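Internal ticket #5521
Category: modeling
Description: The requester needs a full-assembly model to guide mutagenesis choices. All entity lines are attached below as received. Residue total reported by intake: 227.
Assigned to: D.W.
Attached entities:
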Amino acid sequence: AQSVTQLDSQVPVFEEAPVELRCNYSSSVSVYLFWYVQYPNQGLQLLLKYLSGSTLVKGINGFEAEFNKSQTSFHLRKPSVHISDTAEYFCAVIKTGGFKTIFGAGTRLFVKA
Amino acid sequence: DTAVSQTPKYLVTQMGNDKSIKCEQNLGHDTMYWYKQDSKKFLKIMFSYNNKELIINETVPNRFSPKSPDKAHLNLHINSLELGDSAVYFCASSHGDFNQETQYFGPGTRLLVL
């Protein structure tokens, strides 16, 4: 079975600073990986996903993530955050050919002025 | 135009009542889902339908029953509501070969059982 661990439950950061949100997964088979963002009182929306090919994936709002198979990680980064990036971020995994997406527990990014 | 919509947005009810949450998507997607998000923001799949056929049926109490009258709708009926059912319920949809496809989420239904 697959599992996802988001190593930080909360990440406070100052505006315009860089940020990294960490995600590790475990799976004995190949997987697809996703990052979703949830703004307050809203549903989730996709930031980016890794299916195959280049391990560096670029998403919306200036976010990117790097798939590292040897370390089974898919960390999310942004070089300069804005106040509007304050939200909950979820890493998710699904095995290729599978039916069920497993979400991590979420990381709350709090951007301070 | 809202892609995935849910009604109601808020639902406050007494223990023991029966309630339904409706979900509609206008994206032409084949697959729809119900997720439960608890107070700690943990998100867990409950059900998934592909072309009106039940694909995922997680270990949820049988008080929860999904119904998909057509590809664009997936409703969730909950019997004999309990305090522990209080949560935010999200509907989502995705296209075709759904395991690699993006899921599009509704705004959520905030259920509070008193």
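Resolution: model delivered.
Comment from assignee: Chain B touches chain A through 23 residues (CB under 8 Å).
Ticket closed.
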